[in-house]
Amino acid sequence: MGASVITVPAFASARDGVRHFFGTKSHAERMALDVGVPVRAGDARSRGWVLSVKQVHGTAALVVDRPLTDEDRFEGGWDALVTDQPGVTVAVRTADCVPVLVYDRRGRAVAAIHAGWRGAVAGIVPRTIELLVSRFRAVETDLRVSIGPSAGPCCYEVDEAVLAPLRSGVPDVQGLLHDDRGTKARLDLKALVRRQVTGLGIRPEHVTAVNLCTICHDDLFYSYRREGRVNGTMLSGITLVPRR
Ligand SMILES: [Zn+2]
Question: Global pTM?
Answer without folding.
Answer: 0.95
